[in-house]
Specification:
Layout lengths: L1 H32 L11 E3 L5 E3 L5 E5 L9 E4 L4 E2 L10 E2 L6 H4 L1 E5 L8 E4 L3 E5 L5 E5 L7 E5 L8 E4 L3 E4 L2 E4 L26 H37 L2 H4 L7 H17 L22 E2 H11 L5 H7 L4 H10 L3 H13 L8 E2 L1 H13 L3 H10 L4
Antiparallel strand pairs: 1-2, 3-4, 5-6, 7-8, 9-10, 11-12, 13-14, 15-16
Helix pairs in contact: 6-9, 8-9, 10-11
Length: 390
């Protein structure tokens, strides 16, 4: 009994061990069944048989030995004379250079010799063109000459043959051209002096000519009216653009130069007077806007935005000294693009300008100079006209 129990216990232990070991036998098999990840190399590299990405050889070189590990270079060697490679490669041998065929028998001449990076270039000699026999074989054939009654429509080149056609009042007969002496079936379209068969010659009707003349006259009048309307509309739009409060104030009896002189005299008197009387000599607030340093920043910026092409706005503000971080900040904080450009110009205009939103005179001069350097002279002229700058 005891021996039977011991045997049963051993059998149970063996069964448990086999149960746990059986899956382990399949694990390596499953690992072998799992597909390996495909190795991809960077552009300009190639995968070796050992699974390493190596750099290709440059044009004009051939591969001698693969690289031996990552971050190591392949061993390349220049092509010997008479051989070439014209692309990045990992060829063990260079290509043999082409030899142009004999000029006397094949009429082929060398246009450029073989180099380590380029094959020989051959062309047909003058008076011959390259005739394609198949996708890889060509021959130099003599250029065709137009026959009597034909005219040349395309000259012979190294790659194409001459193209001929029948002259006026000639028609094609077999491989030549014959004159149209009689209106035969092959030549009816050349007989312009005779009517088509089955129709009589009719003089043009007077009424038809009259209608044609009226239609032509109406079309001419419509075109003239359209041109005049376009010019008037363009002039009116330009006039509205140039109108501003500064131009309305120009009706003052004093000119821009006189007002500027008076304002300078007033500033001198302010410096000489005691502090208590400064307010009495301050410049009046109702001076005309034509005074250069009285240009309103807001009005000037929108005028510039209307005139300068959108694609050149960032170039303009860079030329005016606006920093890149200020340009980027304006693009982040303001949408759409027009508002961002407004903020960029505002950053520039408020540097050194007077309080109250008035543009400093030297800044306007700087703006005009930069516009002219950017080949935007017409924009500078519009601003000079609008603000009365001589």
């Amino acid at each position: 009994m005891m021996e039977g129990g011991v045997q049963r216990g051993r059998w149970r232990r063996k069964t448990l061990v086999g149960t746990f070991l059986l899956p382990c036998l399949f694990i390596p098999s499953l690992a072998l069944l799992k597909p390996l990840e495909e190795v991809t190399c960077d552009h300009g590299d190639y995968l070796t048989d050992s699974g390493i990405c190596c750099n290709k050889c440059s044009p004009g070189f051939k591969l001698i030995e693969d690289c031996r590990g990552m971050n190591q270079r392949s061993t390349c060697k220049p092509c010997p004379p008479g051989q070439y490679t014209d692309q990045m490669n990992y060829f063990r041998n260079c290509k043999s250079c082409k030899r142009c065929k004999s000029k006397s028998s094949y009429h082929e001449v060398e246009e450029s010799g073989c180099e380590s990076t380029r094959n020989t270039i051959c062309r047909c000699e003058k008076g011959y063109y390259r005739y394609k026999i198949d996708s890889e074989t060509t021959e130099c054939h003599q250029c065709k000459k137009c026959k009597p009654g034909e005219m040349e429509t395309r000259e012979c080149t190294h790659e194409t043959n001459t193209v001929c056609k029948c002259r006026e009042n000639y028609y094609r007969v077999n491989n030549g051209c014959e004159p149209c002496k009689n209106c035969t079936t092959d030549c009816e379209h050349h007989c312009s002096s005779l009517p088509p068969k089955g129709e009589d010659i009719k003089a043009p009707h007077f009424g038809e000519e009259y209608v044609i003349n009226i239609v032509c006259g109406v079309v001419a009048v419509v075109l003239v009216v359209a041109v005049i309307t376009h010019m008037v509309t363009k002039w009116s739009t330009k006039k509205k653009l140039l109108e501003s409060p500064s131009q309305k104030a120009a009706a003052s009896p004093e000119s821009c130069e006189e007002v500027l002189i008076h304002s300078e005299e007033a500033s001198v008197s302010v410096k000489a007077a005691p502090p208590s009387s400064v307010r009495e000599h301050e410049q009046p607030s109702n001076l005309p806007d034509c005074v250069p340093f009285e240009i309103k920043i807001h009005d000037m910026i929108y005028t510039v935005l209307d005139l300068v092409p959108v694609m050149q706005m960032k170039q303009l503000v860079r030329c005016l000294g606006v920093k890149e971080r200020e340009i980027e900040q304006a693009e982040v904080d303001h949408r759409p693009c027009r508002e961002a450009h407004y903020q960029m110009l505002r950053v520039w205009a408020e540097r050194g300008s007077r309080a109250g939103g008035m543009l400093h005179w030297p800044l306007l001069q700087e703006l005009l100079e930069q516009l002219k350097k950017m080949n935007l002279e017409w924009v500078a002229e519009e601003l000079e006209t609008k603000y009365g700058i001589q």
